[in-house]
Amino acid sequence: MRAAYAAGMLLELQRAEVPVEVVIGSSSGAINAAFFAARQMETAVRLWRDHAPSARFISWRRQFTPWGPPGLGVDDMLDNVIEAGGLLDRARATQGSPALYFTVTDVETSAMRIARPDQESLIEWLRAAMALPVGYNRVVEVEGRGYIDGGVACPVCFEEPLDTEVTGPTVVVLTRPMQTAKPPPSAWERLAVRWIVPESIRELSLTQHHLHNGVMQRLRQAVDAGEVMLVDPPEGMPLARLTRDQRKVRRGIEMGQERGRRLVKQLGG
Q1: End-to-end alpha-carbon separation of the chain, Å?
Q2: pTM passes above 0.85
Q3: What values do phi and psi take at 229, rounded to 5?
Q4: Closest CA to 220 of 230, 212, 211, 210
Q5: Fewer CB within 10 A of the terminal residue: the chain, N end or C end?
Q6: pLDDT (tens place) for every residue of the chain, 269 residues total
Q7: How crowded is residue 232: how many other Cβ atoms within 10 Å of its Cβ?
Q8: How far apart are CA 206 and CA 186, in angstroms?
Q9: What are phi and psi of 254, to 5 degrees?
Q10: Residues 107, 5 contacting (CB under 8 angstroms)
């Protein structure tokens, strides 16, 4: 749900027609990246504001009912809302202006992969990019390989080579402050992982904090060296991972828009 804040920010970049060459989405940011590439951020904001903060998308009851659908309603959002409603222009999202990429985690190698979807594979790559192990307790198979949420292996993509030339600055948008270290899983979190998460990705889930903290250390070095423009969330942002309070979601989107307008001015030079 913290992605609602980023959606507000990207809406302002779209309205200001900031020229973007590449957009890379990780985890729930993949939804934002797809709609930004399609120039449909108004639709993405409505999706986070009106659909996501509900039991239809986030359900603790489903989460702890192993024989039911996942607690995180990724399939419902992608298949019954976005696809059935024709909300996302897949052709425009994948036409290359900007070039669209998602991060996913390869289950076999435990490594992050940068995927560039085409029109036909877009929804399945989105499903893989958002396959948060505890919330969406499934491995998504794309092109014969199993993948889960890209944030497991790499919470932010800023240092990997791309097959697209980039001439402008690299801007990293975070939904948690860069200095926030990810702690080892608590006892109840370990129990939840062993109860909910498929065996093939349990170890990845339990060691994710090591990968996260290592990437954030390298990001700090890149920011200090002036190689990356960092956009941290503002103090007091009301959104947590599983926020369902619509008032908080609306405020988070508004805060994203406020930050987006400042970013437009920063990028103006």
Answers
A1: 32
A2: yes
A3: -90, 120
A4: 230
A5: C
A6: 999 999 999 999 999 999 999 999 999 999 999 999 999 999 999 999 999 999 999 998 888 776 778 999 999 999 999 999 999 999 999 999 999 999 999 999 989 999 999 999 999 999 999 999 888 989 999 999 999 999 998 889 998 889 898 888 999 999 999 988 888 888 888 887 787 777 878 888 888 888 889 999 999 999 999 999 999 999 999 999 999 999 999 999 999 999 999 999 999 86
A7: 17
A8: 10
A9: -60, -40
A10: no
- In the block, residue with structure tokens 């920011």: 223
CA 212 to chain centre: 14
Which parts of the chain fold into alpha helices (H)?
3-15, 29-37, 41-46, 60-63, 74-75, 90-93, 122-129, 187-196, 202-206, 208-224, 246-267
Q: Which residues contact 140 (CB under 8 A, 6 or more apart)?
A: 124, 127, 128, 131, 146, 147, 148
Q: Which residue matches tokens 């609602």?
A: 4
Helices 122-129 and 29-37 pack at an angle, to 10 degrees, of 150
Q: What is the Cα–Cα distance from 138 to 127, expressed in whole angstroms?
A: 10
Query: What is the distance between the alpha carbons of residues 254 and 224, in angstroms, rounded to a whole number?
Result: 29
Cβ atoms 90, 119 nearer than 8 A: yes
Nearest to 228 by CA among 237, 219, 236: 219
